[in-house]
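Hello,

Our lab assistant flagged a job as stuck in the queue for most of the afternoon. It eventually completed. Since we weren't sure the result was trustworthy after the delay, we are filing this so someone can double-check. Below is the sequence as submitted and the structure that was eventually returned. Let us know if re-running is recommended.
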Amino acid sequence: MKPHYKPIPSESKLFKVEFQKTSQEFYYPWHYHAELELTFILSGQGVRYVGNSIENFYEDELVLLGSNLPHTWNTTIDQTQPVTAIVIYLKEDFFDKNWMQSIEFESIRNLSILMNKGIKVSKEVALALKPKFFEMLNASPFEKLMILLQVLEYLSHNQEHKFLCEQEFSCDLDDTDKTRINSVYDYIQKNYQRQISLADIAARLNMSEEYFSRYFSKTMKKPFFEFLNEYKINRACKLLIETDKQISEICYAAGFESIPFFYRQFKKFKDCQPKSYRMNYQRISLYQPV
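-- returned structure --
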């Protein structure tokens, strides 16, 4: 279940800024690259995979990724609009010891280390920085660099964020098994509403149940059924945010067969109850930058 390597071509030796737009049905394999990445989602929604983290994504999301941290943003089957994003890639030379190792860049250097765990910035901070990302699209090369440094300095002092992978999850650069993780993702996305057995998913990868279980746990640093339940909880979160369905309806729609078990899993992954999650999101979504 190894991701594949994705080269990032660029005229600059330091960084690259680009606007990305996908089709409504967007799928890109789990991949990694040496460059550090800042991704600002402008529109669209779907599921974000970073290392062994699974979460829904929406517009006005800013995520920071370290070097060789596997990731992908995929739209779900019920996607209604294209995904657009501004993506910044920081190349290895950006952190050249002749300048980035100096005391002036100490906070940015520390940020780059924390990015190895994957960082999701708070929506309030993302919205505050949104104009800067747009400015970089049309700025001159020198102006882009100045704006980028301002963004990184701002982020380096920001505490309104969360880590996506508590354990660093870097790739060993061996992509021979890259199709396996994507096959697992694809199978879960299409079948999460029914009961998935270990035999089902192991057979899909031509493995025994025991071998697949060990393989998945070693590679993803969590058991398969924990991974599956986390996916289902994030599907439930999507329904909590986007619909006014009763929580019991959402439980079954997300693929759970027991309401008590659903509540326990929700508390485990989101550290709150479904009703609180819905109320908190509604409160945050009303935020508008001054």
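-- support follow-up --
The delay was a queue issue, not a problem with the job. The result is valid. The chain is about 45% helix and 20% strand. The CA atoms of residues 5 and 173 lie 7 Å apart.
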